[in-house]
Write a structure and sequence with these properties.
Order of helices and strands: HHEEEHEHEHEHHEHEH
Shape: globular
Structural class: alpha/beta
Helix content: 40-55%
CATH architecture of the largest domain: 3-Layer(aba) Sandwich
Mean pLDDT: 92
Distance between the termini: 87 Å
Largest sheet: 8 strands, mixed
CATH superfamily of the largest domain: Alpha/Beta hydrolase fold, catalytic domain
Strand order of the largest sheet: 1-2-4-3-5-6-7-8
CATH topology of the largest domain: Rossmann fold
Number of strands: 8
Low-confidence stretches: none
Radius of gyration: 21 Å
């Protein structure tokens, strides 16, 4: 009799433990990747720390200065309405800025300046489940990459843009790499700039949990199961699985202080990239996705130099 009671207690304890892990994992998955309010459609600043406020103010200044060139744009992919703003300066070249998690196109204003200064039109988009766009879950770059390909085709077909550069931050960087290495990506997409690109989202999630002194095993494995259920994608896959296909010019910008998308993995992916036109810029200081505000002059100089090299490569290819 006693042994059955003991076994029952053990069984209930193990069951409660597993239920607690699964429940905690689901809460983290929802809090991290689900749109908080399905009805909310806003383009707001996501953080109020000093650097975020400065970035937002400078971005708003760029937007107001160029508001006369703005076109509100819209596409539909996979049943989702996706919205953006296109700043048309009359060029046949354009950059598409892919913002990170929790950020609407408003975040992209801040990164537009070096491109508009270089004569590029600028496309800013609300990624699915952000801003005005439809969507319930962030898919850590996978469906976002297909949306990006659809946007580039829209730019090419609607506005006649024949040279497009993707500029991605964090999840936007992952989506950009997945897009440009996709067989569906049009030839008009010529190059990619990434900032804070993770090897896969599992890397970023694990480092977030460790930083918060949370149990990461087996919580991460459960989070991945929930992500697969809600989106059909695994966070164990990502940029590191496709970087070997990257044969177009790429500029990778990363911070040695980044706790989430580590410089070590950035260097590993850079070594795996087979393309000849590639460069990795490692910042000694700077938080994740806040490198331009840390050293604007260096950041913009690297962007300008990359665009110059890209133009030279494209000219040689045409020639």
């Amino acid at each position: 009799m006693v042994i059955w009671i003991v076994m029952g207690v053990i069984f209930l304890s193990v069951g409660f433990y597993l239920y607690s892990i699964a429940y905690a994992a689901h809460c983290i998955c929802v809090a991290t990747l689900k749109r908080k309010d399905p009805e909310r459609r806003e383009r707001t600043r996501s953080a109020d720390d000093e650097l975020s406020v400065r970035m937002d103010e400078e971005g708003q200044h760029w937007q107001k200065k160029h508001d006369a060139y703005k076109h509100d744009v819209h596409i539909v992919r996979d049943g989702w309405n996706l919205y953006g703003e296109y700043y048309d300066f009359g060029s046949s070249k354009a950059v598409m800025v892919l913002s990170g998690r929790t950020e609407s196109l408003r975040y992209g204003y801040y990164f537009a300046k070096p491109y508009s200064d270089a004569g590029y039109n600028v496309l800013l988009v609300d990624s699915r489940a952000h801003g005005l766009s439809d969507g319930e879950y962030i898919t850590v770059g996978f469906e976002e990459s297909k949306d990006a390909v659809a946007w580039t085709k829209f730019l090419n077909e609607t506005y006649g843009v024949d040279t497009i550069v993707l500029h991605g931050i964090c999840i936007g960087a992952a989506g950009g790499l997945l897009a440009i290495t996709s067989p569906d990506c049009p030839d008009c997409v010529k190059g990619l700039v990434t900032e804070g690109m993770f090897a896969n989202f599992a890397e970023s999630m694990k480092n977030h949990l460790i930083e918060r002194k949370r149990l990461w095993f087996p919580v991460m494995q459960c989070i991945d199961l929930w992500l697969k259920r809600h989106t059909g994608h695994s966070m164990k896959k990502g940029p590191i699985d496709v970087i070997g296909k990257m044969d177009k010019p790429i500029l990778m910008i990363q911070s040695k202080m980044d706790k989430y998308s580590t410089a070590e993995n950035a260097q590993k992916m850079f070594a795996m990239c087979p393309g000849k036109e590639k460069k990795l810029v490692l910042y000694e200081k700077g938080d994740h996705s806040m490198l331009r505000i840390t050293d604007t002059e260096t950041y913009d100089t690297e962007i300008t130099a990359f665009l110059t090299r890209l133009h030279s490569t494209c000219t040689q290819t045409v020639g």
